[in-house]
Amino acid sequence: MFVIGLIGGIGSGKSSVSAILNSLGVDVIDADKVGHEAYTPDSEGWRKVISAFGQDIVGPENEIDRKKLGSIVFSDPSEMEKLNKLMHPIIHDLVEEKIQNLADQGINVVVLEAAILIEANWQDLTDEIWLAKANREVVIERVQLRNNFSREEIIKRIESQMSNNDREKHADIVIDNDGTIEQLEETVKTLWQSRVNGRVT
Fold it and tell me: Which site from 3, 20, 77, 91 is most exposed, i.e. has the minimal number of CB atoms within 10 Å?
C-alpha cells in the first residue's frame, strides 16, 4: 500500500487535486469527513469532548453542537489545543483503520487528503507528501468567489494556518496551482504517470 498525504491551505486547490486523482482511479480518504465521524454520538471522541467541554455543547439529538464547540475553541487557543490533543489521535486511528481496510481489499494506492496532516503529526500514515499551494492573491480571489468571505476574513484564515514555507519543509512534491483547472489536471496527470501509475498495476 502506497499512501500519498495531500496537504495545502485554504484555497490552494487541494480538493481539486484529490478529485483529479480520484478520477484517475485512486481511492481518497478525506480527513475532514473522518473528523466528523469521530464526533458520532456515544463514540470515544464524543465522550471525551463532552467530558472536556461540558454538557452545554450537546444538541437536542445527542449530537455535539459544532457551532457551540467552535465558539469555545476559536476564541481561545488553549481550548483549541485541548480539543486537538483529544481528537487528533482518535482521527489518526480511524484513518489508519480505513487505510488498512483498503489494503485488505487489495487497493495499492490511496490519497489521504488532510489539511492538518503536519500539525497533527500524521506523517507516519503516509509514504509521500504532496503539497498544493497557490499565490496569496490567487487564494484570496478563489475563496472570495467560492465562499463570499471578505478579504480581511480570508487573510485572517490564511494567517491562522501553517505557512507554505513551513509546509514545503515536509513535502516530497510541490504542486503550484496558480493557473487554470486544465493546467492543474495536466500537472497532476504527469505526476500520476511518473510517481503513482506503476504502483497500482
Answer: 77
